[in-house]
Amino acid sequence: xxxxxxxxxxxxxxxxxxxxxxxxxxxxxxxxxxxxxxxxxxxxxxxxxxxxxxxxxxxxxxxxxxxxxxxxxxxxxxxxxxxxxxxxxxxxxxxxxxxxxxxxxxxxxxxxxxxxxxxxxxxxxxxxxxxxxxxxxxxxxxxxxxxxxxxxxxxxxxxxxxxxxxxxxxxxxxxxxxxxxxxxxxxxxxxxxxxxxxxxxxxxxxxxxxxxxxxxxxxxxxxxxxxxxxxxxxxxxxxxxxxxxxxxxxxxxxxxxxxxxxxxxxxxxxxxxxxxxxxxxxxxxxxxxxxxxxxxxxx
Length: 299
Known about the structure:
Mean pLDDT: 92
Radius of gyration: 19 Å
Strand order of the largest sheet: 4-5-8-7-9-13
CATH superfamily: CNF1/YfiH-like putative cysteine hydrolases
Strand content: 15-25%
């Protein structure tokens, strides 16, 4: 299914709008800017990192939901990302345990004089690099600024997943792990699973050292010649998207069920995306998924 460029309130999003219309599944990728795209624009950061005021991040998150007509009393569920392969299932037990903590984080982020309390709450959030839920009306989100941000859905059972995959996560096969969780624990069928890759650093810009290159070659030896490249000047490059797609194929996902936002975060025009490799200090764009609560299939 095609990933569309969608403008809402003059802000660019990438979204497979057919999923929302047909299945009530809202999958959204953001950029670095809200409103008109400008050179060096970075006003749509969605991460509570140290370079940005928490109150501005909260405003941006509310704008993300509002612009995409997501009306919910539930907080956005996200994790403290650790570049690993841990996947968290967002179920009733998780929400019972953590919902109030996320709501408190949203509330305290808007206060000017409670930064210590804000940091304490933020550091109490669960760790992980992937989320799966079958619960309607709960937005889930991962963040990235070069790392791969991936959204997955089971169109028949209306299950969603969001994955953050940096090079360590790719090396640890986080996508394979997430897909197998959907198949084994949720009963998803491969033919019903659709994968959407958001903007990320691509092979053109993802230069690595020789030791990491060797680690990838060892892990994906049977197909690595297709995804790794050693240039004449001794530089090493890897196609992370290619390897992630390979992981999906090995899990039984059809090529027609995989879609990719084509842009490289590091070298795209007009500073459209946050890129840590390019700017060192950078905000984060998001991949957000949401199951509409009131949706009904039409015959």
